[in-house]
Amino acid sequence: ARALALLSDEGLSQPGIVVKTSSPQGEHERLPNPTLAETDGRITVKFHPWSIEAIVASEQAAH
């Protein structure tokens, strides 16, 4: 939801713009992965709730 606040209403309402939410889960992932994606069919921008540092720390803590 916070990521959507960064996008203008005008930009999101343009023809051909699609906004999608998902929660993909990779094998052995420790953190939940809710994802927000915006695409125009050519370029997709994905927003994730975790920083790269948090993901790496989570994976290192498991080993």
Account of the protein in words:
With 63 residues, this protein is α+β, with helices and mostly antiparallel strands. The relative contact order is 0.18. The protein has one domain. 29% of the residues lie in helices and 22% in strands. The chain has a three-stranded antiparallel sheet, with no helix packed on it. The mean pLDDT is 81. It contains three helices and three strands, in the order ααβββα. The longest helix has 10 residues, at 52-61. It is elongated. β2 (35-39) and β3 form a beta hairpin. Pfam families: YecM. Residues 16-35 are annotated as: Disordered.
Protein traits:
63 residues; alpha+beta; 3 helices; 29% helix; 22% strand
DSSP, total strands: 3
Q: Please give the oligomerization state of what you see.
A: single chain
Largest sheet: 3 strands, antiparallel
> Strand sequence of the main sheet, in spatial order?
1-2-3
Low-confidence blocks of residues: none
Strand portion: 15-25%
Class from helix and strand fractions? alpha+beta
The count of domains is 1
Shape: elongated
